[in-house]
Amino acid sequence: MGRLFWKFFFAFWCALVSAGLGVWLGLTLYERAAAGNSTLATGPRASFMADTLADLLSRGDVESVRRVLQTWGQLSPDLQALFIVDAQGQDLLGRPVSAVLLERARGTALPYSPTQKPEPWFSAVREAHSPNGSLHLVFAAAADRALDSGRPLPVTSHGPPPPYLPLAAGLLASLVFSALLAWHFAKPVRLLRWALGSVAAGRLETRIQPLMGDRRDEIADLGRDFDRMTETLQHHIAAQRRLLHDVSHELRSPLARLQAAIGLARQDPAKMAATLDRIEREGQRLDRLVGEILTLARLEAGPERGPGEVLDLAELLADVVADARFEAHAVGKSLQTDGLDPCPLHGHVELLHRALENILRNAVSHTAPGTTVEVRTTLGSAAPAGRQVRITVCDRGPGVPSEELEAIFSPFHRAANCQSGVAGQAGQSGQSGQFGQSGVPRGGFGLGLAIARRAVEAHRGAVRASNREGGGLCVEVRLPLD
């Protein structure tokens, strides 16, 4: 169970306990006030004793009554509160009797009858007539009023507290805890609402976690998830803007060369053939760039639609290696592979061919002259996801700074050593196979490795890069076979 559950649980539990305590306190005060108002005892026990004494008095046996009173008083202190008062207000045992107590006894007295007895909770005061005609009041006083000598009754005696006091106490306690609970949960919800409105207005730098303080519940987790979401959105939008800028820059260069070639053709018609060749090359370059961008956009839009087909990965890899070996030999480099047994795979031939070709050409273009690009293949069956094939392509180039090993799979990325004039490996692969003096393929746009990763991921695989000991870069491709 989550932390939010326990907050709700303990909040409601505290509210119920507080309400219960309030009701209990109210009832206790009510009972005490009611007890303070009752100077006369009631109940079956008091009625029984009053009836017994009244019966003895009605028979004229006063001495027996006196002995009974004395005996009962010795048996229990509570029974010392039994009074038998004559018409002059004198107790049979000579004890002082409160005037207030006596007045109330006279106001609630009932004539004694051996045949008709009142309800025990109504009154325990009896009027008894002795054979000589004298009248006596028989009653039992409350224990704390037994020997009251006429002191004034407390304020509570003016009447019991209102019966709605316990309900009001419980209601007040529940209102307090409900208000605290509502405030505790409404505040972060208001913050989330404000943050959502801020992001909807385009302010992607909005973060909510610092405003939530030290909360450690599910709402705080929601705030952290919101911050991660806005950070990802901010990153993607920044990447889209950067991509748009890079595409514009890549398109501007061949267009500028086209315009220059057209201008030269107009100035010197004698060089028209060479100028047209240049225009044709620039047109082809533009066509390749647009094709790469469309391929990348299609892959980023989601996995390839359609069922695909069953292909032999070993045969596909052999074709790609043969083409890359031909291009490597043309620039004084070599390519070595350990071969792969027939390996059926369900996927899209064009995408996988493009991915492997881009990775191999990137390695061939950046490995040092006279060195060898190594292609190793491994079949595994102990992977958590099932059987898979691993293809590793390693070169002997300058490698990539460790902080950019992940960035080289981003569109139009150039590694720092590539930007500084060294033939660094920055994903500038996947083009025509024509190489310049530096070994960097002409026509590279920095889209090759980006396309390779997305093509492999479309087949539920993964691509990662690591620097090689002794110099160079290794790119590992993992593809599931199940």
UniProtKB/TrEMBL annotation:
PROSITE patterns: HAMP, HIS_KIN
EC number of the protein: 2.7.13.3
Pfam families: HAMP, HATPase_c, HisKA
Recorded topology in the membrane: Multi-pass membrane protein
CDD domains: HAMP, HisKA
Chemical reaction(s) catalysed: ATP + protein L-histidine = ADP + protein N-phospho-L-histidine
Keywords, in A-Z order: ATP-binding, Cell membrane, Kinase, Membrane, Nucleotide-binding, Phosphoprotein, Transferase
GO function terms (MF aspect): ATP binding; phosphorelay sensor kinase activity
Main location: membrane
InterPro entries documented for this protein: 2C_sensor_his_kinase, HAMP_dom, HATPase_C_sf, HATPase_dom, His_kinase_dom, HisK_dim/P_dom, HisK_dim/P_sf, Sig_transdc_His_kin-like_C
Keyword Phosphoprotein: yes
Domain Histidine kinase: 246-482
Cellular component aspect of the GO annotation: plasma membrane
Occurrences of domain HAMP (ranges): 183-238
Compartments in which it is found: Cell membrane
Highest rank taxon of the organism: Bacteria
EC class name: transferase
Name of this chain's protein: histidine kinase
Source organism: Megalodesulfovibrio gigas (strain ATCC 19364 / DSM 1382 / NCIMB 9332 / VKM B-1759) (Desulfovibrio gigas)
